[in-house]
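Final report, closing paragraph on structural work. Over the funding period we assembled a curated collection of sequence-structure pairs, and we close with a single example.
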Amino acid sequence: MGKAKAGSARKPRGRSPAAASPAAAARPLRGKESSRVGKKPAAPRERPGEPPPPAPAFCPVDLGAQRERWVTFQERQSLTGEEAARLLLDTFEYRGLVKHTGGCHCGAIRFEVWASTDLHIFDCNCSICIKKQNRHFIVPASHFKLLKGADNITTYTFNTHRAQHTFCKTCGVQSFYTPRSNPDGYGIAPHCLDEGTVRSTIMEEINGKEWEKAVKEHKTIRSMSKP
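Its predicted structure, as stored:
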């Protein structure tokens, strides 16, 4: 995504929206109209056999009285519009969470993950987890970011091939993986986190030898990978 100044409008693709009348453009916008440019004409009624009209394009956010403050913030922090928006969204979405960092033994793989300071860790006894002592906590995919080492990761799968057991090609350490129970998230090895951000841990044993039954009866494990 290219850089854009705060408050600047991106030209929508396809047809451009109809221009507002001079009277509509002159008056101040109120309520729901504040997020739109002028007042849009009523959508034409569909005739039998005709396809529905295309959905309206999203309009840029109206910063209103906060525009000057927003621009000043961007300039002081040397942020693009995208970077400032991401900072705001991260602050809201990750409220109450901290940024942990970690990686493998040799340092080829590094990542950051937003999670609580109090970690709920699963100790699974399925055929592979018991051999590699795969204790992990689960986070949504949007809370995880691989900082380096994408080209130094190899993956092992078996059985259903839904779980993606990823590990470092150099040192063999699995610092994170994609669990079968939560394919839309990541399982993070707490012992691969850097020191200083974990306050406490709670360990829960899960019967991976009867995986389907254990996951079906568990009340919260599926939701742990939801933002």
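Residues 81-93 form the longest helix (13 residues). The beta strands are 98-103, 110-115, 118-124, 135-140, 144-148, 153-156, 165-168, 176-177, 185-188, 200-206. We thank the funder for supporting this effort.
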